[in-house]
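Sample pair:
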Amino acid sequence: MAGMSVDGLVSGLDTTNLINQLVAAEGASQAALKTRLTATGNTASAYRTVNTTFLAITAAAEAALKPNAWTPTKASSSSSSVAATATTGAPTGSLTFTVVGVASSHGVLNRGTTAWAAPSAGYGASSIEVRDDAGAVKGSIAIGGSQTLADAAAAINADKTFGLSAAVVQVRDGATPEYVLQVTSKATGADSRFSLGGAGTFETTALGANAELKIGGQGGATSYSVYSSTNVFDKVMPGTTLTVTKAEASPVTVSVASDPDAVAGKVQTMVDAVNAAIKTVKDYTNNTKGSTAALRGDFSVTQLAGRLLDAVSSAVGASGSPAQVGFSLTREGTVTFKKETFLAALEDKPELASKLVLGTPETTRADGAVVKAAPGIAARVLEVSKSASDVTTGTLVALAKGQDAQAEDIEGRIEAWDLRLEKRREMLTRQFTAMETALNSLKNQSTWLAGQLSAMG
């Protein structure tokens, strides 16, 4: 019935338009609910956007609070052929050495007793025997297929036991072509050496060798060597990995030093996250005339920015003002971090820099008095960010969830209005249909009476 048209059957009225206007008038409340639903969704989204910036603060502050963040080291090498990397906390120091040689794989050449003229030539045996460097048999590799030279290479490459790879290589073309089987160990080092038994003859083409670093020996002094089956040395200097790429007769020096720039970088990341959060809060709570900010004037959000500024600028116990190590506030309400001041403090007063950022634990003085713990900048900033963004207790999380609950309620009310307005439309349609039917009946009666009167005359 909702789609039934009763336009002007008798009355000539635009009945459909009248019904639409009456339903629209009664649906004003639903329209207002839809507007509220949009605003509620925008508000929830805004809370979550702000929350994202506080999550970034949490990550940056936690990174700055890690003890190893304050003991970073950086490795350097005097030669481009030796790469050096150091883990956080690696002992500082230096080491000078020469690179006697790099690690290599072992290689064996297999020639046919009668030269193999093509990869499809018969290999001459059903298997290849694999032996260790001393000649002791380790096992064998069965050759499948038609037992051709190519099948021999394929069998070696498919084997998972001995760690070998093979290739068929053409060494002579022309009227009397010759192919050979080159077998190479996948691993490097002296332990990769092997020998083979099978068809034809075998020759060693490359000797598996360890990489060797020679330390000392300058000016006739005592020297010693360290070895690696690969080109990587990760135990020579604790926490430092050396990777060599070629022999170096000239001395190479690897140095491991503290990396204050890395410490400053973590602190800078934290400050950047704080400033980003403060800007986002200001943008979304802008309360100036004409502002359309989604969280305009929301004190529960604006006060978070104030707490961040306090966390960065307030004195840290007996250690004093953070300004001593480069922290300050601008008149616009943002945080400034002077890296050069912080680096100077790390060099001249490392303990003060650490205390101001990390804080100090609770201690007991010699007279028995307890000195309370003093949270540092990072810990205070972390407390603010967690109070805002914690998944269970965070202010911003709770506010966003509150808007979600409101949206769900509004959606239910909108749906209820859909049913109510549909029933109202049906009722109005029935009423107008009844009116048109009644008018039609009256018109028919009038026509009949007019006919009767005419007949009587």
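The chain is about 40% helix and 25% strand.
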